[in-house]
Amino acid sequence: MATATVDPARRKRVLKVIVFSLLLDLISFTFILPLFPSLLEFYRNAETVDASESQSPTLLASVLNYLNTYKASFARPIDSRYDIVLLGGALGSLFSLLQAIASPVIGHMSDRYGRRTALLASMTGNIISVLLWVMAVDFRTFLLSRIVGGLSEGNVQLAMAIATDISDDSTRGSTMALIGVCFSVAFTFGPALGAWLSTIAMIKTNPFAAAAGFSLFLIVAETIYLYLYLPETLPASTAKEAATKDSKKTEFGKATTAAVATASEPVHVRTNSHFMLNAVHFVFLLFFSGMEFSLPFMTYDLFGYTSAKNGRLLGFVGLVASILQGGVTRRLPPLTSVRIGIVACQVAFIMLGSLTTVGSLYLAAACLATTSATVVTGLNALSSFEAHSGERGGKLGILRSWGQVGRGLGPILFTSVYWWAGREVAYGAGAMGMSVVLLLSVFGLKSPPRADRSKTKAQ
């Protein structure tokens, strides 16, 4: 089945807008990642003083009490230095679960009202979220900023929906890989920039105001840029505009959006069920996110790694992933990309369960970089092939929602096994989980004929 040819000049123009805006968004988003321990420690220390002057415990004190109860359930003692790390993980899980709720809504909204409208609405929520962070002199305000951000963040899924709107079969894989490159670049440089900005003291009651303020500047600049330069890409909307123009030239031209969509949209034949794609995404991220969250604990236990050394390790992963996405992933059929990434992740799990040297750690990190560069990008491309233009936003939103549920639950479940049964058992279970994901991808998924033909044509 052929798809409509996309004007190369328009594709290049829109892609430039999306890549630049997504870089701004992701760099702003990653500012806070290395700051979580210091942020939460600042609020804990500040509210400890407030609690001594008040009869009722603060919100943060109550959360930490629940956390200590959770820690006490493990057979192995957990060092108190991990309190803040666990709290940061809990906030990360909360953000992911809120994304699981919001993503389908944002996706369906983009199918109904247009990508541009949905993206600008999402940006409004992001501005409010970061503004609350700028004003956050206590934990309650900071928590509210994360809740608002979790419910409004839709830039990534909408960027992917726009990427599919402006791509035909022969360019879709490379376009989706370019979105992945934005992730890798942002996660390579954003955390370092955020850490540096946190050293600039501006407001005594909020020592992280400089990082938050610059993040707000980037988000506002991104919103203005999108408002000025991003056109609507939803095929039904663009077809309606074209039909309106044509109707003015003909006496009997009374085309409607539905009529145009019916005429221009061929019957869509699906190769894979969305349920299977969603299930693979969920199970993969359930194990992968748990392993990601456990890395700082493992590197500290084995090698005494500090935050700076963990930052260099993650920077290495981001750099390798960006190189792979730019040079390899975009040339592979999506399903091949997914399977390669799952195997690489399985190898990483096996290595992490038994490694004893820093060299082995970085070799496992290279495997994780391969996974980061392939699996999610490939699943998004597959999902886009299985949806027609009028439902892509919703389908990609649901795919992201399932993934965010896995990302929200993974850290809690994986670290529980890590502390109850030890490193070897935890990573061994992760390797078995990846075996299940691999079997699902081999026997439950097929490569869409259009994806294979487009890659052959491109080569």
UniProtKB/TrEMBL annotation:
Domain of life: Eukaryota
Protein location: Membrane
SUPFAM superfamilies for the chain: MFS general substrate transporter (SSF103473)
Positions of the Major facilitator superfamily (MFS) profile domain: 14-452
Key word Transmembrane present: yes
The keyword Transmembrane helix is assigned to this record: yes
InterPro entries: MFS, MFS_dom, MFS_trans_sf
Keywords: Membrane, Transmembrane, Transmembrane helix, Transport
Residues that span the membrane, as ranges: 17-36, 84-106, 118-137, 175-196, 208-230, 275-293, 313-329, 336-355, 402-421, 427-445
Membrane topology of the entry: Multi-pass membrane protein
Database matches in PANTHER family: MAJOR FACILITATOR SUPERFAMILY DOMAIN-CONTAINING PROTEIN 10
Protein name in UniProt: Major facilitator superfamily (MFS) profile domain-containing protein
Originating species: Sporothrix stenoceras
Top-level taxonomy: Eukaryota, Fungi, Dikarya, Ascomycota, Pezizomycotina
